[in-house]
From TrEMBL:
The lineage of its organism: Archaea, Thermoproteota, Thermoprotei, Thermoproteales, Thermoproteaceae. Belongs to the AcnX type II large subunit family. It comes from Pyrobaculum islandicum (strain DSM 4184 / JCM 9189 / GEO3). Component of a hydro-lyase that catalyzes the dehydration of mevalonate 5-phosphate (MVA5P) to form trans-anhydromevalonate 5-phosphate (tAHMP). Involved in the archaeal mevalonate (MVA) pathway, which provides fundamental precursors for isoprenoid biosynthesis, such as isopentenyl diphosphate (IPP) and dimethylallyl diphosphate (DMAPP). Pfam families: AcnX. Residues 4-369 form the Phosphomevalonate dehydratase large subunit-like domain. This is Phosphomevalonate dehydratase large subunit. The keyword tRNA processing does not apply.
Length: 373
């Protein structure tokens, strides 16, 4: 019954947006699983699907929740109870509740395979750096697609729909995490839509690639960019490009985007979730100085947190709070601060909107300095 309900819903949507065409998907990743963002109505929808006997038919993972898995962040009882019901519903449907916005860490999506993902930074990451194919599916659509096994065949599930439409020359680099985010935001704001082809972009590390993907999809409707020399099949995309727009991102453009810094209440790193190298870098930098005067919060995925072992305890003695399964974007814990410094342009966009907390963008090195100001 539930599968028929999901199939019928997907087909009706496909009639409107893709002339009735659908594509089978290998995996799904659903967003909108934080009680803070979906509230009671969202929980009731999940429980409704469970009452129909819904089960996912492809490997399906979930986004960060409102609560961290270790109880590091203090959360009110109402949110805890709401999040418990969300987890219960997801488990009943067979969803792997990894509570991570970076499922690409362990789901090795192959080039030109179809996926129904809903987390925008993750979609942009696999589209851009792996040439795996997913459109920006809203959370409920991704879940229904996971149950049905297919989603509407929108343009990004076709080669023609992935044709580059803008040539973007990057005169900045190598890009650190903040610069990569600013470049992504600038491209998003200047183009708004389409498929950018990036020439000259060099990403310094894994964190910078994550921050670029997150910012591009946050500041625009775009979830796919072709990076010259990086994206699989980039040469094919170059030859098929229809470059209606041409823009240049310079170092001056990046500098103008950044304002003066001020002393924050806390520092936040890990939006998208921090990889092991980023966490170890922060630990080493703080060890050189001794315990931070202001707390440094780092969000990461549960499986990375487990890999850290006792390092998490070492970090806590240095006033570094590492937590897993949530982030300061979707957790009500964030509302206790007046200002937060971060190297994430995505966090800088969403935290003020969701929590009315001021955000101070800064390079990672500067963020650490501010923790001692």
């Amino acid at each position: 019954m539930a599968q028929e309900y999901a199939k019928e819903a997907i087909l009706k949507i496909a009639d409107v947006i893709s002339s009735g065409e659908v594509v089978p998907v290998e995996t799904a990743h659903i967003s909108g699983v934080s009680y803070l963002t979906i509230g009671e109505h969202g929980v009731e929808f999940l429980e409704f699907l469970v009452s129909l006997g819904a089960k996912v038919s492809v490997f399906t993972t979930s986004n960060p929740a409102a609560t961290d898995l270790g109880g590091v962040l203090e959360i009110d009882k109402e949110t805890l109870e709401g999040q418990r019901r969300i987890y219960k519903a997801l488990w009943a449907m067979g969803v792997s509740t990894i509570s991570s916005c970076t499922p690409y860490d362990f789901i090795l999506t192959r080039p030109r395979t179809f996926h129904a993902w809903a987390e925008s930074n993750a979609i942009t990451y696999i589209n851009t750096f792996r040439d795996a194919w997913s459109d920006k599916n809203p959370g409920p659509l991704a879940l229904l697609g996971a149950i049905a096994g297919f989603v509407p065949k929108t343009p990004l599930y076709t080669l023609e729909g992935r044709r580059p439409t803008a040539y973007v020359k990057i005169d900045v680099g190598p890009l650190d995490s903040l610069e990569a985010g600013v470049v992504g935001a600038l491209i998003g704001e200047r183009l708004g839509s389409g498929v950018p082809y990036l020439s000259g972009a060099v990403f310094r590390d894994e964190e910078s690639r994550r921050e670029f993907a997150a910012a591009l999809s946050t500041y625009s409707s775009m979830v796919f960019a072709v990076v010259e020399g990086v994206t699989p099949h980039w040469w094919e995309y170059l030859h098929m490009g229809d470059f209606r727009d041409k823009i240049t991102i310079s170092r001056d453009d990046v500098a103008k985007y950044l304002g003066d810094v001020e002393t924050p209440d806390a520092v936040y790193i890990g939006c998208p979730f921090a990889d092991p190298d980023t966490i170890l870098w922060v630990l080493e930098e703080v060890k050189k100085r001794g315990p931070a005067k202001r707390p440094i919060y780092i969000s990461t995925s549960p499986h990375v947190y487990k890999q850290l072992g006792k390092l998490a305890e070492t970090a806590s003695r240095l006033n570094i709070i590492i937590f897993a399964g949530t982030c300061l974007v979707v957790s009500p814990f964030t509302r206790r601060f007046k200002s937060i410094a971060t190297n994430s342009l995505k966090a800088a966009f969403y935290i003020p909107k969701l929590h009315e907390v001021r955000v101070i963008p800064c390079r990672k090195e500067k963020c650490i300095e501010l923790a001692y100001a």
